[in-house]
Amino acid sequence: xxxxxxxxxxxxxxxxxxxxxxxxxxxxxxxxxxxxxxxxxxxxxxxxxxxxxxxxxxxxxxxxxxxxxxxxxxxxxxxxxxxxxxxxxxxxxxxxxxxxxxxxxxxxxxxxxxxxxxxxxxxxxxxxxxxxxxxxxxxxxxxxxxxxxxxxxxxxxxxxxxxxxxxxxxxxxxxxxxxxxxxxxxxxxxxxxxxxxxxxxxxxxxxxxxxxxxxxxxxxxxxxxxxxxxxxxxxxxxxxxxxxxxxxxxxxxxxxxxxxxxxxxxxxxxxxxxxxxxxxxxxxxxxxxxxxxxxxxxxxxxxxxxxxxxxxxxxxxxxxxxxxxxxxxxxxxxxxxxxxxxxxxxxxxxxxxxxxxxxxxxxxxxxxxxxxxxxxxxxxxxxxxxxxx
Length: 389
Hints:
- This protein is mostly helical.
- The protein has helices at 19-34, 40-48, 56-75, 80-90, 93-105, 112-117, 130-138, 142-158, 174-192, 196-222, 242-255, 275-297, 305-332, 337-358, 372-384; strands at 231-236, 259-263, 268-273.
- The chain has a three-stranded antiparallel sheet with strand order 1-3-2.
- The protein starts with 18 loop residues before the first helix and ends in a 5-residue tail after the last helix.
- The model is unreliable at 1-7 (pLDDT under 50).
């Protein structure tokens, strides 16, 4: 028996008459968009809403289709911030807005704070369908609106199941929040400083504080009966030079007892480790990326892509060396260093085991450096970078 080809509605197909048919038509059009068929969204939108009035069935059909796909994305590990970051990179502002509204409409109680963080709120009147209110808010014609809806649905169809499911970060004790507040203050001061040497000292102090806090925590938890289970977090990177920037995340992760892997398809790095260590990685990476970018663009005009990429690779390499030195010096200066070593070794085994279970087929990839000038400038900037004070 031969393979059956799936039939999708063409431009000449009659317009759906029910909400269910509208939802199916939107999903079929979105499937074409997800496969990369050019102008599929606009073509089908004009067929489904040819006039100046949005068909009444369209609102319920769009709600059903969007609910189906956003629920699948959430089961696949996509947190609200991940949806927002990915949509920023793949669709326009209208499609992104529809994605976030759909996430807000389908939110579970554990994700409410995360939705607020990305600006996804239920702004529309609950007694009326969402779609007509969304169309009015963005001042779109019916065809323009359905084009964006189809593009949003097509985007959601492309989302893979993530290796690490998204989970909400646990509530921090007041003492931990106070220490994190000190680290944030140091890094904020480092980012705003116009003096490289001052920035370097501040960043180094931040790493020292995070390491000391981590070592204290390890000692306290060493006697606990419950085993510590490594968690995971995604750190999204902005273009360009995401491969070079991912190297910076990797070296910061290693210095903070974590493992990291880069997904070049979606421009994020997944970091595996203890929740508090993940906080340290996220905070320090964000600050160092700001400092690196500022140092990279501060030189003479006309520096090309080869220079800038080489700069970032060298910067990350040198920062990794400095962070490892700070972490080792902090451990050496700890009175309980002998007691800490076997506990840290056990923790490392747990992180490595969790990482291997999540990513059994990680492939190493080198980053090419093509500018000696950029490499030298990057190392010099890393020597000046603030790790903390």
